[in-house]
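Ticket #4471: complex job returned nothing on first submit. Input attached below:
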Amino acid sequence: MKNRLKVLRAERDWSQADLAQRLDVSRQSVNAIETGKYDPSLPLAFRIARLFGMPIEAVFED
Amino acid sequence: MMSSSHPSPAPRKSREVWSPAMRRYMRRMWPTMAVYAVVLVGVIRLFDTDPPTGPLKYAAAVAPAIPLLVNFWFYGRYIVEEDDEFRRLQIVLTMLIGLAVVLAVTTVWGFLEVLAGAPHIPVYFVAVVYVVAQGLSAPLVAWRYR
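Support reply: We reran it on our side without changes. The output follows.
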């Protein structure tokens, strides 16, 4: 699944570790989601969207 | 003057190599393995010097397995308590690889033993093969998701 995580993160000048801390997940999780190797669960996807103040479909696209 | 152009929530403590659930598992696992080592040495010594008979024989023979069973249960607790879903997926993948290797090795060895006269291996080596295979698969799984 494609997503705009890397762009959204760069806009806020956050490292993968910064985003991981804000989501309370491991940095490896952020990396795997960002590179499309791992699709987050619906609850985590909602947490990501809320963190960026966006609807979920503005962050993830199928 | 302090300006807050980034009104995002303050970062909580970072999660590095060991997750809190993994650290809890380690704290439970090492004392259990210490008990296992002590019980194992004691039981081996008992069977060497004064082999028990009757029901005591069975109780003594099973004794070293008990701390290991407790440890298997702790590992199950770890999976349940690991709240990083990606890490949980990776752990479960290593468990599946461990299971696959155990099934492959024991199936092949079983036929070798029955048909080709290969030496018999005690059944508890199933757990040894599983643990080693799972451990070796961890870097493989990490590499797959790097």
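Residues 85-116 of chain B form the longest helix (32 residues). Closing as resolved unless it happens again.
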